[in-house]
């Protein structure tokens, strides 16, 4: 019985890590650009602040700052792939992992954020939406 309890605890601790790893993927700007080109249903989620969003953003991105995500999660589609980005990829990585634990099935984190995207010369919008 003791071994069974230990086994159940190990499975419970390990399973969430595998679930997140199976659905959340870091993508560099080149891969993200390809995703945008190939996947017309890709939902773009910007988790930065409104000020950052005005400075530079991807066309068609929805702004939901990271500190508002929990109360606005219903705005996100569960039936579409989601590409999440922030300035350098740290906040978006947190959001991708959170969404994976909430049952979102196809998630991508823009590794390096919008800064790496812009450095590659990919298009950005600036100013108020």
Structure description:
This protein has 129 residues and is of the alpha/beta class. The chain has one domain (2-119): Rhodanese-like domain (Oxidized Rhodanese, domain 1). It is built from 6 helices and 5 strands; from the N terminus they run αβαβαβαβαβα. The protein has helices spanning 2-23, 29-38, 50-55, 69-72, 90-101, 113-119, and strands spanning 24-27, 43-46, 62-63, 82-85, 107-110. The protein has a 5-stranded parallel β-sheet with strand order 1-5-4-2-3. α5 links the parallel β4 (82-85) and β5 (107-110). It is globular, with a radius of gyration of 17 Å.
Topology:
Elements: H1 2-23, E1 24-27, H2 29-38, E2 43-46, H3 50-55, E3 62-63, H4 69-72, E4 82-85, H5 90-101, E5 107-110, H6 113-119
């Amino acid at each position: 019985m003791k071994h069974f309890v230990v086994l159940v605890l190990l499975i419970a601790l390990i399973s969430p890590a595998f679930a997140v790893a199976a659905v959340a993927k870091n993508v560099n700007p080149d891969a993200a650009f390809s995703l945008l080109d190939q996947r017309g249903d890709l939902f773009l989620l910007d988790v930065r602040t409104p000020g950052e969003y005005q400075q530079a953003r991807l066309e068609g991105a929805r702004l939901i700052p990271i500190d508002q995500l929990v109360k606005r999660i219903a705005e996100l589609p569960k039936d579409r792939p989601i590409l999440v980005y922030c300035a350098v990829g740290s906040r978006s990585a947190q959001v991708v992992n959170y969404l994976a634990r909430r049952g979102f099935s196809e998630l991508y984190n823009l590794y390096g954020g919008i800064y790496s995207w812009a450095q590659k010369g990919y298009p950005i919008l600036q100013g108020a939406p």
